Amino acid sequence: MKRNKPVFEEPGKAWATLLYLREINISANRFEQLPACVYEMKQLEILMASDNKINSLYVEGLSKLERIAILDLHNNNIDFVPPLLGNMTQLRNLQLNGNPFRVPRRAILDKGTYEILDYLRSRIINE
């Protein structure tokens, strides 16, 4: 029996029309990573991806989303938050609660988006 592939695995021509989306909600699925086609949605302002199984963040891809203001990744399996995420200063709302990472600590998460981004920027190692 042939199993269907998730719709995001094969974007094809249909996904080309989604490049101008301003908001997408892919919450409550079983994604282990953000679908690659999301990084091509240059007009995206709101990305809701909570309650999945996302285990890592691809900051280089997220950085392509220059208009992103809300990034909701709570209740996933993220075990490391890359410090470079702190350079995404256009974020107004970043939700990371409910993930297994230890850094940044919950006390920093509770202070809000600006504090999280500031903390992450302070952890960037300049070579």
TrEMBL record:
<keyword id="KW-0677">Repeat</keyword>
<dbReference type="InterPro" id="IPR032675">
    <property type="entry name" value="LRR_dom_sf"/>
</dbReference>
<dbReference type="Pfam" id="PF13855">
    <property type="entry name" value="LRR_8"/>
</dbReference>
<keyword id="KW-0433">Leucine-rich repeat</keyword>
<protein>
    <submittedName>
        <fullName>Leucine-rich repeat-containing protein 40</fullName>
    </submittedName>
</protein>
<dbReference type="InterPro" id="IPR001611">
    <property type="entry name" value="Leu-rich_rpt"/>
</dbReference>
<dbReference type="InterPro" id="IPR050216">
    <property type="entry name" value="LRR_domain-containing"/>
</dbReference>
<dbReference type="GO" id="GO:0005737">
    <property type="term" value="C:cytoplasm"/>
</dbReference>
